[in-house]
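Standup, Tuesday
Yesterday: got the pipeline producing structure tokens again.
Today: sanity-check two examples.
Blockers: none.

Example 1:
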Amino acid sequence: MSAQTQGASTAPARSRSRLGTWFDHHVYSLVASVGRMLRKPWATALTIGVMAVAIALPLGLWAALGNVERFTGTVQESRQISLFLKTDVAVARARALTEELRGRSDVAAIELRTPEQGMEELRRSSGLGDAISAVDGNPLPSLLIVSPKGDETLLADSLSHLPEVDVVQHDAAWRQRLDSWLRFGIRLAWVLGVLLGLGALLVVGNTVRLDIQSRREEITVLQQLGATDGFIRRPFLYLGASYGVVAGALALALLTAAEHALRAPLHDLARSYGSQFSLQGFDLPYAVAITVASGLLGWLGAGFVTGHHLRQNRPTA
């Protein structure tokens, strides 16, 4: 066999060997980081607990805002305009008016509720079915529910001049207050998320810094032997990521426990208002995203501290 053939056959082997070594070190770094966490259970529990609370607070506020929006109705629903037609307007004319308004450029959607539908809904929701059935005739008018496409105030003013319309119900002030509160809550959740996320990052960084200090001599020996910064940094990165992943999972567990504690009394409260509302937590994709983001947060904190240490303690030639 020629030298060229031998060189060609050993090149892939060396490549596989380097790849295997790289993979083995990643696995070793991950296992070693988990082992260091388990060897210090009290310190690990404190670090993970602080991180979990810092992650859970903005997530809990975000989930609460989402449930409040579901309970009170979406902003689009709160913009809806209710048109109560005059009682002498026939259902056929109400349907024709519905089609006319549906063609307007400032109307996004429109729904017609006939007097019969209104009476049936009243009978179901009020609990006075027998008393309502005893009433002669149907005193309810036709109702048009209009969803605006643009400025709902201008649309409501325009619709109030229709000859078939008796009453226009549109609480613009309530809608604006709801919208403002929701925007404020979302902004507050973002601010808390950034501040508490920074706090969690600092907690991980300080924990990793203490671990670096305890292994200072080992790091110095590795640097003198020619180990790269990536090789030295890798175990600490996995340590920070492990803290983050476990803290994210614990934060989700805390929020799930809070949801279960509040679900029954809130369901009873909603049922007293004739609503079937129930709390909605984080589904699986969101839970996975939160856990991954928490791990990335821990990875970044560990990387920042480790990189700073390596830059400040490079061996002199």
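Example 2:
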Amino acid sequence: MRRGPLQAGEKVQFTDRKGKKITDQIVAGGSTQTEHGLILHDDVIGRTEGVVVTTVTAKREAQVNALHPERDAGKPWKAARAIGGWQYAVMRPRLADYVLSMPRGAQIMYPKDIAQVIQLGDIRSGHRVLESGAGSGAMSVNLLDAVGETGGLTTIELRPDFARVAEANATLYYGGKPAWWDLRTGDFDTVAAGLPEHHYDRIMLDMLDPWNRLEQAWRVIAPGGVLVAYITTTTQMSRMVEALRESGRWTEPAVQETLERSWKVAGLAVRPDHQMIGHTGFLVVARAMADGFTALKKRDRPAKDTVTDVDEMTAEEREAQLEDLELRDISDRKLRKVLRDLDRQVGSLDV
């Protein structure tokens, strides 16, 4: 963690009075282009976080209407955009800010999902974590931060170009490639086959078909270790859950998604934003059983059928299977009471 004066080479976050954020790397003699002029990096280097800097003239024409300048005479901000004078607060970016602003080779996981992976996966300092699917490095940077230098992260990325993006983003964040990170390229099964048995405390899978990787995942995870899979669609989620159950090597999987909504607060005018971050993905969490032991399963009702496709049934079979397919959730006794109440109410109408 960096403290003290801001140094050349660091990533810095500039925020204006409207809340617009710009994250850039500051270099000696450099500048950051904004809508309101240039932020000179030499005005930032050597100063502390929390200062305010002012933009200077940008090398572009003014925003004032060239044909009818009188129309913009009462709009001083039009000229301010061209001549500078716009203020920005200077801070080091939070990890969440860094993740959202970093260059991407693949779609990143949102901070709301990353936070849940860390919490539900119980990923802490000193843990040995195996990650599959580096993407742009958003999850990798957070895992590296969570396990710390006393732990270790092994990341397997199929595509070498994505691995380069992830490594560069992590290197920029830490000021050098973390020594506790082992980044490998190749397919998961091949690379994992060379890893020590029951070595990892936690596994994070962010890939298209995690259900096909459970054999090697169980081999390298320690008994009681936590497996977390990030999956974007319902069909993938269903296949993953059923594969975990069928293997017998993992506890009953838990599935959840996280929705995020921010709020506007101005005195007594308090309301939620019109836009929110809705569905981004599902998290499937399970724990590894010890060798020789099968996961305990909840017993379903014998008559319950959750597999048969209703479109493949005849009309008679559909009628017979209504309760099994859970197409109704009301008892016959309750239904009779509802009908009696409705008959009484209809009979009371003045018709």
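Quick observation on example 2: The chain has three domains: 11-93, 96-287, 310-347. The chain has a mean pLDDT of 87.
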